[in-house]
Specification:
By secondary structure, the protein is of the alpha+beta class. It is built from six helices and seven strands; from the N terminus they run H-H-E-H-E-E-H-E-H-H-E-E-E.
Length: about 190
């Protein structure tokens, strides 16, 4: 009888240790489902989760070369992501191919226009700017951009385009840096 109790006690102790280690590992490195389902405020994503989160929101892949990849993710029922990365000419061509085809509006920005925006305290990315202020993580600094190209697609609710994610893409021509804010609304 004592052997049986000792065996049950050892099995229970091993289970408790295993569960504790699993919880500690998940606490340090939460999976993407934590950000999509349980985190309703914006958070900076770990680099290992950015590509998968981008795919979930946009239904597209990031270019192969995406150096300095950083992202802020806002989960919940209507997920959104704001991504920044540097790429080469192939990566920029890929972004044009994926996002430029369906863009409803495209613009070129020069230094003078960006100075006017800065003077009037208007951001190219208003919602991600609020996220950055809220969490204290700054991946977009408008004053560093001298020239750029922007294109966007805003789905109209109640039409067949409302099932597509909306996006706003800014390409900083001087640094080959791409900023993408994409959201999905039902």
């Amino acid at each position: 009888m004592k052997k049986r109790r000792l065996c049950i006690f050892l099995i229970a102790a091993c289970l408790v240790i295993l569960i504790s280690l699993t919880i500690a590992k998940l606490y340090k490195n939460p999976p993407l489902c934590y950000y999509t389902q349980f985190s309703l405020s914006p958070k900076e994503l770990p680099t290992r989760l950015i590509r998968r989160a981008f795919r979930i929101v946009t239904n597209h892949e990031l270019p192969q070369r995406a150096d300095g990849l950083r992202a802020i993710f806002h989960g919940g029922r209507e997920p959104a992501i704001f991504v920044r990365f540097q790429t080469d000419s192939e990566g920029i061509a890929y972004i044009y191919e994926v996002f430029g085809k369906t863009a409803m509006k495209a613009e070129m920005f020069d230094a003078d226009f960006l100075k006017v925006l800065k003077a009037s305290n208007v951001s190219i990315f208003p919602i991600p700017s609020l996220w950055q202020d809220k969490i204290g993580v700054y991946i977009f600094e408008q004053e560093l951009i001298k020239t750029g190209r922007e294109f966007r697609f805003v789905p109209v609710t109640g039409t067949d385009t409302s099932e597509k994610p909306g996006y706003r893409v800014l390409i900083d021509d001087e640094h080959n840096t791409v900023y993408i804010h994409s959201w999905f609304s039902w």
